[in-house]
Amino acid sequence: MTKSVELELFTLFKMTPDLVCIAGKDGYFRKVNPAVINKLEYTEKELFASPIASFIYPEDKAITQKTRQELLNGKTLLNFRNRYVSKSGKLVWLEWTSIYFPDHEVVFAIAKDVTQRKEIEKQVEEKYKKYKGVATYFKNKIEDDKKHIAYGLHEELAQLVAAMKLYIEWIANNETQMSSTSKDMIERALAVSKLLITSIQKISFSVSPNMLDEFGFTATMEWLCKEFSVLNEIPCSFHGNYKEENLSHEMKIDFFRICQETLSNVITLSRSTDIKIKIDELNESMQICITDEGGFEMNTKNESAGLINMREYVNSINGQLTLQNAPGKGSAICITIEKE
User: Fold this and answer.
1) Which pLDDT score, from 0 to 100, does residue 322 have?
2) What is the chain's mean pLDDT, rounded?
3) Do the strands 275-281 and 236-241 form a parallel or antiparallel pair, or are they unpaired?
């Protein structure tokens, strides 16, 4: 290396606003540029006198040590973030790119100060948590209101219809002098009352699935698929690959509503012959996939109101929705939701 090149590198080393350092395999600084001194607020002598680990924020020491060992084993370090504590006690977020030279047993490292960026990320995260909390509150309030409506339908209206049915049955069994026309009307009234009770029960379940609390998520989903199959004469099955205890009550409600809305869209927009609902628990997320063999008879670029509502619901819980569609061949709707 010529002296002019060495001079240029030395000038760059001293003038760059990035933190540049050379560290020994023993974990001590060998050389630092002025940016390191200015940012950490220690003198060069103080920096060289103590192990680098002593300047690292305690909670980040373990991950830094693990990453450093990987670096010494030959892995190049790119965009690794950790926190340092300045002499005045301020936390400094640094993003490191480092390489180890085994022949000289030194690490050459460059870091950018990303403290401001991390603070902005923290503010965004706090705002997100705040808005998520507000959205969760209103969603829970809506579910509570639905539960009251379902209770009114099932416990009050259905019981009134059941009482009316009993009265009609009493008349049918005890009034023997009725005309044939009256008997026919009584039989029709009984049939209508039975249908009315069944309809109220179905609407009550649709509004608020109490089965979730009584029998659990898996049993509720199996019942939903079975009811869908009976009502629409289309095979519908459910398979779950997850631990139910890992699902919060809110997640169960969200998954049920998504599947409920999807089945509604499927029967409206497709010519299905077989529907499968599958929920998988991944490392950091849950994935719901609803497939059918019919495919949507529509242009997916111009989505229906049902699909738009479902996409908006998924977005509101910070999920991602993908739709694959081939009319006549099949379709798949998959929703990925981060675990809480």
Assistant:
1) 86
2) 80
3) parallel
Query: Helix (H, G, I), strand (E, B), or coil: what is residue 238?
Result: strand
pLDDT score for 294:
65
> Domain 210-340 is in which class?
alpha beta
pLDDT above 50 (res 1): no
What is the model's pLDDT at position 33? 92
Residue 238: pLDDT over 80: yes
- d(C-alpha 21, C-alpha 30), whole Å: 7
How far is the C-alpha of 267 from the C-alpha of 269, rounded, in Å? 6
pLDDT of residue 154: 55
CATH superfamily of 3-113: PAS domain (3.30.450.20)
Long-range contacts of 271-274 (CB under 8 A, 24+ apart): 271/295, 271/297, 271/328, 272/234, 273/234, 273/235, 274/234, 274/235, 274/236
* C-alpha torsion angle, residues 32, 34, 36, 41 (rounded to 10): 120
- For the chain, the domains span 3-113, 115-208, 210-340
Task: Read off the DSSP letter of residue 104.
Answer: T
Q: Tell me the C-alpha distance between 281 and 292, whole Å.
A: 21
